[in-house]
Amino acid sequence: MMKHVNYSEIDLEHPQEPGVKNIKVRWLISKKDGAQNFAMRLFEIKPGGNSPLHQHDWEHEVFILEGGGFVKDQTTEQPLQPGDVLFIKPMEWHQIINRGSTTLKFLCLIPYQK
Amino acid sequence: MMKHVNYSEIDLEHPQEPGVKNIKVRWLISKKDGAQNFAMRLFEIKPGGNSPLHQHDWEHEVFILEGGGFVKDQTTEQPLQPGDVLFIKPMEWHQIINRGSTTLKFLCLIPYQK
């Protein structure tokens, strides 16, 4: 049988990146599983937390699972709700912020370089 | 601002593949958006529906959003619940079945060939 787990069974890690506040991550599917093309991570941002406002040369594919928050680029901000989808292209500025009272959970997938 | 939509705003299409029963799909992020490495789709399987039991040379990364169901390979079957993660490697046999009374919704991501 293929890999089949509930996300809650996967270790919750602290991302080490500068600018990260009140964020944890689970690597649901990664190179450790034999994934060669892209990785699936589930992020949890606690109330008052945020990712850094940053850019990089790979894309993000994001799906909001629970909670609410805001997504920003360098000039504008939009609210996020469950079921929202973000496609953040390479070099697009982005930040995700939780100003609510519950944990914001979302999937964020990234490519592997070949 | 980056692409930002709710999944419910994206067209619900009928997959054309043989063996598909009571399934619809939304292509949340695809080549149309400029995605070059992988695509994010959201599938909905109605009660009594199923995907074909099949295999192919690309992987699936799956996250169960709502409802319940079963995942099968050629010999075994396991129940699915929200928050479950499947990594189906290239050439692994797989089928997803909804025997419940509510719609099964899940994300299924696939790589693009380069």
List key phrases describing it.
114 residues; Jelly Rolls; 9 strands; homodimer; mainly beta
Oligomer: homodimer
| Helix proportion range of chain A | under 10%
Into how many domains do the coordinates of chain A divide?
1
CATH architecture of chain A: Sandwich
* Terminal CA distance of chain A: 27 Å
Q: Work out the strand percent of chain A.
A: over 45%
Mean pLDDT of chain A: 97
Written as H for each helix and E for each strand, in order along the chain, the element string of chain A is EEEEEEEEE
- Compute the CA-based radius of gyration of chain A: 14 Å
Instruction: Tell me the total number of β-strands of chain A.
Output: 9
Helix- and strand-based class of chain A? mainly beta
The CATH top-level class label of chain A: Mainly Beta
Number of alpha- plus pi-helical segments of chain A: 0
Which sheet architecture does the biggest sheet of chain A show?
Answer: 5 strands, antiparallel
* CATH level-4 homologous superfamily of chain A: Jelly Rolls
Brief digest:
By secondary structure, chain A is an all-beta fold. Chain A has strands at 3-6, 21-29, 38-50, 60-66, 69-72, 77-80, 84-88, 95-97, 104-111. Chain A has a single domain, classed as Sandwich (Jelly Rolls).
Q: Can you describe what's shown?
A:
The structure is a homodimer of 114-residue chains. Chain A is mostly beta strands and 114 residues long. Chain A has a single domain (13-111), classed as Sandwich (Jelly Rolls), CATH 2.60.120.10. Chain A is built from no helices and nine strands. Chain A has strands at residues 3-6, 21-29, 38-50, 60-66, 69-72, 77-80, 84-88, 95-97, 104-111. In chain A, the strands form two sheets. A five-stranded antiparallel β-sheet of chain A has the order 2-3-9-4-7, with no helix packed on it. A three-stranded antiparallel β-sheet of chain A has the order 6-5-8, with no helix packed on it. Chain A is globular and about 45 Å long. The two termini of chain A are 27 Å apart. The mean pLDDT of chain A is 97. The interface between A and B is large, with 40 and 40 residues.
